[in-house]
Design brief:
- By secondary structure, the chain is an alpha/beta fold.
- About 50% of the residues lie in helices and about 15% in strands.
- Strand 3, helix 3 (about 65-75) and strand 4 (about 80-85) form a beta-alpha-beta unit.
- Helix 7 (about 160-170) crosses helix 9 and helix 8 (about 175-185) packs across helix 9.
- It is globular and about 55 Å long.
Amino acid sequence: MTARTVARVVVADDQTVVREGIVMLLGLLPGIEVVGSAADGEEAVRIVAKLTPDVVLMDLRMPRCDGVEATRRIRAEHPGTQVVVLTTYADDESLFPALRAGARGYLTKDADGDEIVRAIDDVLSGDAGLSPKIQRRLLERLAEPARTLPEPSDEPPDGLTAREVEVLRLVAEGQSNPEIARTLHVSTATVKTHINNLFAKAGLRDRAQAIHYAYRHGLAEPPGRPLN
């Protein structure tokens, strides 16, 4: 840590044992004060609004409101709070939506205390707090040649309607429900209905799975891979 004030941190993770373990670890690290913890994205957004922490350590796969959506809302509503993702997943379908949503750091849960301190310090200094593993993945992605996605068929998969496909594409672009509503000139409730319907038809659990589904079926454009 640099010689500035102590970093005030909130931890968001839906697994109680993991969340409490992270809080305990952070309590032992220099220059960090844990001011709150959240069991899902909705709670994380509420705590940030109340406590205005410097950093949120954010899990991705959580109920009600996942980490990507919570990150987007926090960065839009509380730009003074930085987000560092701390997750089990390092796949592209988790990494890139989180970065698009405004996360400035990304660590996997095998990170040690020094890595967490360094990431928090980096994001509060205006830099990116990325683990070496994530930095390598970003470099690998930049080095990959563009690959052609499968041509979408005339009929959407799993009986999706044209409107549901349109909503799915916007989800894959990283738009939140209110942003999708504005784009399509419909209500947020209508967007939620479309998302619930397409999740049920495609057997999807969360937005990360929906993004992967959209890429796999050629319904959306992964980062760096132009659709033909």
